[in-house]
Amino acid sequence: MGCNEFINPKSLDQPLEEVLRAKGIEYAFDCIGNQDVLNTALKSLTPWGSLTVIGLGKRGNKVETSVAELLEGRQVAGGYFGNMKPREANQRLVDMMCAGSLKIDSMVTHRMRLEDIGRAFDVLKAGKTIRTVIEF
């Protein structure tokens, strides 16, 4: 029935690994592709728990697990661009946009000139934008 708890590791009184190991988690999502995050999330799963990898990590990153963890039903799945097939999905997205059923304007939070590209990256790094359009 949705997310019961969201854990921000920066606001914890104890190491993240201790918090996760104590309860275990049923579903984990890695959105940044960091190898340490992947492995911590996998080790924190309850039996039959599921890790979904969304973030694009470095080439060669590995997920470390044991056969026993797999036999207990733990699952790892990944998706790139929402598992959409680009050729089919792009056409569908363009059609939706042209029909007005895909509201992309609300996702554009900033518009900046090409000369301000440095500031655009600063806003992105600070997590203060959903989508920035560079105009030139």
Automatic annotation (TrEMBL):
Gene Ontology terms, MF aspect: S-(hydroxymethyl)glutathione dehydrogenase [NAD(P)+] activity; zinc ion binding
InterPro entries membership: ADH-like_C, GroES-like_sf, NAD(P)-bd_dom_sf
Cited Pfam families: ADH_zinc_N
A GO CC term attached to the entry: cytosol
Highest taxon, organism lineage: Eukaryota
Stretches assigned to the Alcohol dehydrogenase-like C-terminal domain: 1-94
This protein's UniProt keywords: Metal-binding, NAD, Zinc
GO BP terms, alphabetized: formaldehyde catabolic process
Record has Cell membrane as a keyword: no
Cofactor(s) this protein requires: Zn(2+)
PANTHER family per record: ALCOHOL DEHYDROGENASE (PTHR43880), ALCOHOL DEHYDROGENASE CLASS-3 (PTHR43880:SF12)
Protein name stated in the entry: Alcohol dehydrogenase-like C-terminal domain-containing protein
Protein source organism: Oppiella nova
